[in-house]
Specification:
Length: about 140
């Protein structure tokens, strides 16, 4: 059995990462989960948070993801992310503006609830954006 698992991170724009790693920790909707070689089959929803990539027994890289899905097999972990940014590349000012904009969008959606398209998509989208922005800010703390 190999001592690495192939990790792939894919965003809507492109393949961001494809490399063997010792372990990857993914922010799952039901809690963080670690993937090691030989992991059981798994499909999971990914919540906004940080993926930790382990090499040489320590966290070598941290990547913020805004959500998505993960598919795990004994040899591979593939994360299909809505958005992915290396934690070191996150600009605090931009993340704070993103949170303010999302809160304003939620307030506007709540204000216009009766004029909404009936299914609450504006409110749900604003709430998702707030969670992503809060997780982004938490990642750089």
């Amino acid at each position: 059995m190999t001592d690495t698992v192939e990790f792939e991170l894919v965003s809507p724009q492109r393949l961001l990462k494809s490399e063997p790693v010792e372990m990857v920790v993914v922010p799952g909707a039901e809690g963080d989960f670690g993937v090691l070689p030989g992991h059981s089959l798994l499909i999971a929803t990914v919540r906004p948070g940080v993926i930790n990539i382990h090499r040489d027994g320590e966290v070598a890289e941290r990547i913020f993801v805004a959500g998505g899905f993960a598919e795990v097999s004994p040899e591979r972990c593939t994360v299909l992310a809505e958005e992915a940014v290396p934690v070191n590349d996150i600009d605090r000012g931009e993340a704070e503006r993103r949170l303010e904009d999302a809160k304003a969008a939620l307030a506007k959606a709540e204000e216009n609830k009766s004029e909404d398209d009936g299914d609450g998509t504006a409110m749900a989208g604003a709430e998702r954006e707030i969670k992503a922005a809060e997780a982004m800010l938490a990642a750089i703390q």
